[in-house]
Specification:
By secondary structure, this protein is an alpha+beta fold. The chain has two domains: 34 residues; 153 residues, Sandwich (Immunoglobulin-like), CATH 2.60.40. It has one helix and eight strands, in the order H-E-E-E-E-E-E-E-E.
Length: 197
């Protein structure tokens, strides 16, 4: 009987520890996305160069052009706020997708590391960034656009996929406060459709 009681107490301690660890993990993860206690805001916008991406290998020089530029600005919440500790070190970006054509399938999201320091009240840009991983053309939803697979998206029946590419930028002030913002690139993806524009 005593052994069972001790085992039950040990099990209760383990469950309590696991519950605490899970609560801490959730708070740690959600803090990054909900924290607005930083003395500055990271404001992210974009300048878009292309609206259509032809996924086929082609000679269109526009397809070598960047989709656009990500513009970042560190805006003090109070005009008197400044100083080195309120500079923001941008550490990574996350790319995800949202269909705008009624389709369901999207590529898997991914994260890339970067390292950019932006002073409080200043701006920065990201000119070179990845919006599709290298093997994305051979996966859903783009694989269906290939001629050997029918050349049409199965969800919409159209020869192109329309979606927003969402780029979330994450950083931290030198004082240790998390900041983030996101921007969207609305794009049409097609295969052998006359190039990029």
């Amino acid at each position: 009987m005593r052994t069972r009681t001790m085992a039950n107490q040990s099990m209760k301690k383990v469950i309590a520890l696991v519950a605490c660890a899970l609560a801490a993990a959730v708070m740690g993860c959600s803090n990054e996305l909900t924290s607005n206690s930083a003395p500055v805001d990271l404001v992210v916008t974009n300048t878009q160069n292309l609206q259509q991406l032809d996924l086929a290998e082609n000679t269109d020089p526009d397809c070598d052009e960047s989709v656009g530029t990500i513009n970042m600005q560190v805006v003090p919440k109070n005009a008197s706020i400044g100083g080195t500790l309120n500079s923001v070190r941008v550490t990574r970006y996350r790319v995800s997708y949202q269909r705008t054509d009624g389709g369901r399938l999207v590529p898997s999201p991914f994260v890339r590391t970067i390292d950019t320091l932006i002073a409080s009240g200043s701006t920065g840009t990201i000119n070179e960034f990845v919006i599709l991983e290298a093997d994305a053309v051979r996966q859903a939803p783009f694989a269906a656009l290939l001629p050997q697979n029918g050349g049409r998206d199965p969800d919409t029946g159209r020869p192109l996929v329309k979606m927003d590419v969402i780029v979330e930028i994450f950083g931290e002030t030198l004082g240790g406060e998390n900041v983030f913002d996101s921007t969207r690139f609305p794009l049409d993806f097609c295969f052998d459709c006359g190039g990029c524009d």
